[in-house]
Amino acid sequence: MKRIRIIPFFMTLLLLSGCAAQTAENTYRQIDSEEAAALMEEKNNYIILDVRTEEEYSEGHIPNAINIPNESIGTEEIPELPDKDQLILVYCRSGNRSKQASRKLADLGYTNIVEFGGIIDWTGETQSDSQSVPQTINSAGAEVSSEEALVIALNNADVPEADAYNIKNERDSDNGIPIHDIEFETDYGDYDFEVSVDGGRIVGADYEVDEEYLNILGGSAVSLEEAKKLIADKVPGSDAENVQIWEENEDGRGRFEGELYFENMKYEFEIDPATGRIFDWNADLRG
């Protein structure tokens, strides 16, 4: 009888060890940008992978980074990444797409993936290409096409193009200003943008991310001061010192709320401190 009991016991051990091995696979490691910079100094044979769009990459990226947009990573083998055991350091703009890409790379069998968030937290050197599509604003007087305006809106909202559907992109005017009136939906929220035809400035925006998606979308925790910098980065030319911000805890999940007045625009926002994600954003042109 004892022998009969021992066999199921060892079978259980084998099954458990198999499950453990399975869960150990398809994973990646997360570090912050400072740790990533130290790793780049320490190691030699590694790849820095920028998973933003080509336009974002052209505007500014970490030196020696290669660009493979998150949207292009699927189930096919990636010729640019032949060595699946090589150290690959992955980043995007704010940390959302880099996590998505890291998960997909791990599922493809890459064993040494390190995700370090977004370039907005990078304090080291960056470089840009001579030709690029701007994230938020073009040179004064340059007319922005509807395609460029959509890129500007998606980048400002930190929404991968693959996530957007039911896109409406029409030419219109607001207070005498020719604009591209852009609307799109995602699984986690609806987005409205008004992008000036002349120069590509965002003169209106309104979106709200469903709070139940915040943990799914992910990100990195931010302090009050870091949240101010997030807003200043989102509004080119503005200063974090001019961002008014405070903490609210009325519904059990803390949040940072605030506003910014800059160049005849009023911006109102809510930020999730746990993920650093701007989940409520409104921008209005005043006067």
UniProtKB/TrEMBL annotation:
Residues 1-23 form the signal peptide. Pfam families: PepSY, Rhodanese. The keyword Glycosyltransferase does not apply. It comes from the Bacteria. Residues 42-131 form the Rhodanese domain. Keywords: Signal. This is PepSY domain-containing protein. InterPro entries: GlpE_sulfurtransferase, PepSY, Rhodanese-like_dom, Rhodanese-like_dom_sf.
